[in-house]
Amino acid sequence: MAQDLQPGSIIIPDWHQCAESKDFFSRILYKKKRKQFGLLESPAMAPQAAVDTVQYKVFLSGKNGVGKTSLAARLAGLRIPSMHYETTGIETIVLYWPVKLRESGRVLFFRLQLWDCGENALRRFDHLLPSCKEQVDAVLFLFSFTDRTSFDDLPNQIARWSGPSDRVVKMVVGTKFDLFMHSDVTQREVRQFQETQGLPVLCTGGEVSDGLGDVANFLNGLAERLWHQDCMAATLDRRPTQCREGALI
What's this model's pTM, rounded to 2 decimal places? Predict the structure, then answer.
């Protein structure tokens, strides 16, 4: 099961710090800052260094104000909004992240399309949730350490995405972790929740740097679980050993 996956067992976690990775990460950076990619754009590699790209749809779920838009901006290297505003519809952000598989030594570009939709909009317009669920590969369930109700609402958020043939990667993200002086949720409660639900819990917060270190652990962990889920699905479906063949672009 994906929740039993040991971090770093599939993807080399500190590869972004190795000299070997410099050429790959230079394709997603400009003047030490992350490049912004449109829906039809991708990192340009030299023909002799071309690598496969796998694409995934990731939905951010959570109450209004927990930081879904800020998390998407953080992961994509965008400026985090200084003021909160409610997402009125669906907003998407595309980011690329290169990884190296531990066993084969193969390098892949992960293309992650982050979907962010306001909670009130989901309640008001019935067609939005089915659109968000369509061909989704992962769901990040967000709560804020400064909002107790958002933590208590997690079971409802998770139940909304449960299904009989569920192959969606699920992870929980605690935002505003840096505001520990104002925390309404204890570390003990987070550990208990993680043990009960069997889902990994990641924590984010603080300022965003121009480097990769503040998002590398998060994106590597997400990429690892997505790749593992595809390999498990390929095994169950008795497909060829090539994982995620249909998603190579």
Answer: 0.86
